[in-house]
# Entry
Amino acid sequence: MSTSQEKVQKYLMNTTQWMPMILVKGEGAYVWDEEGKKYLDFVGGWGVCCLGHCHPVMVDALTKQARILTQASPHTNDPQKLNLAELLVNNSCFNRVFFQNSGAEANEGAVKLARRYGKLKLNGAYEVITANMSFHGRTLAMTAATGQPHYQDAYQPLPVGFKNVPFNDIEAIKAATTPQTCAVMVEPIQGEGGVNIPDDNYLKQIRQWCDEKGILLILDEIWTGIGRCGTLFAYQQYGVEPDIMTLAKGMGSGIPIAAFLAKESCSVFVPGDHGSTYGGNPLMCAVGYAVLKYVIDKNVPANAREVGRYLLESLKRLQKKYSFIKDARGRGMMAALEFDRELAQDVLIACLKEGVWINRVQPNTIRLMPALIIGKKEVDEAISVLDKVLSEIKLN
Ligand SMILES: Cc1ncc(COP(=O)(O)O)c(C=O)c1O
# Structure
């Protein structure tokens, strides 16, 4: 066992099945481990590094701002925060922004805003309807929001106020709605649930239902936002406008920054209602601004769309070739292969040996979430390794 692996065993909490490699460097679509082995990275910092690892735009903004001002105070503002808020508002359907540090925090903020709205405008309604197989984060409230019992069971009793219902089922949302409901919160496409793409009219139906009932629609775009699905935000593909949207991951392309955005009509916070020590600090906002500006100016979502289509076609070809592949699906740079049995871990380990890093998102499903700036060459490299691995896999 290497010294690093000994430290893993000795010092870290045992919270996950750690990957076998210790990473020491990243550049573009590749990472290197401490033994010098290079991997084509189709995990992308868990969907974070939208511009790849250590993109010069991110690094320049970070290092420049680090010499100027890194942390102000939750009660002050600075040009970095204001410029990023303006850029987000000018490129979305929202009017106001609150910055946070992580996805779970952004979702907490969004739910607090919805509850505040419920208190003021809906006779104290506080319940939020979410979907089974969703993922909204690891805080206690977001564990309750996340409709996957295996994340919840160890922490019962969970905070009240969340109802998990089947995904892609408008009737389930209607049936769960009561006078206590203040919002429906869903991911446009479920990421951690296995890249689950709903019917085209699902979000429209939810929007109509929310309008009918006067309740809010919150979209968790922490995975799907910042170009990953081929448009800057996924809601833009569905002809709906949510009342509140949450963002994280791709916002900083490798540094922690998150936000929730809201329409004017539901921006009901008043001073003292919400806050965050680090949220919206000048360092993170300088990077967030540089990354988002680059994503917009260079039309990075278009590349995600085009290369993502090529990735999906390539996965569909593998599906035709291997009968144990049940489904190949994706949208932009978020794709999955579902097997008819629990092969995902074996496929992941075999791919790692061949120098390609993918994600096991469910026991029977692998997920591919590369940087949005990769080309067809990197897709070909990953697919040829996957093809080799699948041809050699031992079926149980
Ligand atoms: C859709 C979605 N929401 C929220 C989160 C939580 O984000 P974070 O891990 O930054 O708290 C994740 C994380 O994977 C996610 O995929």
User: Anything to note?
Assistant: The longest helix spans residues 300-321. The pocket of pyridoxal-5'-phosphate is lined by residues 102-104, 107, 135-137, 187, 191-192, 220, 222-223, 248 (CB under 6 Å).
